[in-house]
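I am writing to request your help with a piece of structural work I have in hand. Thank you for your consideration; the sequence and its tokens are set out here:
=====
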Amino acid sequence: MTPQRRNLLGTLFVNGLLALICFLWLIPTLGLFISSFRDRFDIQTSGWWTILPHREWLKVSEMELPADQDRNQPMTIEGVTATFEEFREGVQTPDGKRLTWVGNRRLGKIEVQELRWTTNANFTLENYANVLTGKEYTIKLADGSEKIEKGDDMSGAFLNSIAVSVPATVIPILIAAFAAYGFAWMNFPGRKALFILIIALLVVPLQIALVPILRDYVTLDLNGTFLAVWLAHTGFGLPLATYLLYNYVSQLPKDILESAFIDGASHFTIFTRLIIPLSVPALASFAIFQFLWVWNDYLVALIFIGAKPDVQVMTMRLAEIVGSRGSDWHLLTAGAFISMLLPLTVFFSLQRFFVRGLLAGSVKG
């Protein structure tokens, strides 16, 4: 086997394996996505994969049970002899049909079913409308009756999450960018010690800081406000942001900055005119991390904002729906994909900078 052929086979194997892993990883997400467009009855009675063409036993007719037969003994129906329990499971006839007992032993009926190709592709947008608008909707119960319930209005929680996530992403990026420039290109007493102290905060779990910060917020009357969670996420995100941006800023060409200094540019001018435009990959990379972290955060928001309906974020609203509507998968899946909409938009908008930002400062020379 030639080296070229060996390399080709190796590439095909690796790419095929990665494609298989991605496919298996996406199957649960695909199932949830499809379920978000199905009604409650279909979700409870069939799997999401039944939207694909498949063979299924479908009712073609039904018949009354003979009144002269003892239902506690084996019965003969359409030439098939079986017990009540066997008819409940379904008994196949010689002509390829199936007889299934529906109902109880005294008032049941026999369904005649045939194996046919079918799909359960009854899609609807009502799940998203119910979750976003909170309007009343009708659900069909297992006994055939109907029940009217009110949907969960998540529009307010969606806006609250945006109000929390955007400032909690922009503020630490701005502060960390200034700090990274100072540590990389400015000389001041205690620079190394201060930088080591900031990096050491990366190993400190945020959970141990929640109670002291909460006490200070109560004293300052900040608890329950968006400002409280902005400051908390800024403090928790600054060590990583400073470290990530420092690695990038410190590797920028020194000649450019020296030329700017010779031309009389101040540190602020250099930072705004040179450092920020050149550091877009690193800024975008951290923005993805910070935004996803803040958007998916539950603990910090619960402690510093609270669970009041007017300030709830998406994670708290979804947790509340799980508690009150644990069996309403049509609402839970719709709410989950609504919460994924903005993070996916942010990631795909900034992904072209992602790898460059992560590799910042990893290669020298």
User: Anything to note?
Assistant: Residues 161 and 313 are 5 Å apart (CA to CA).
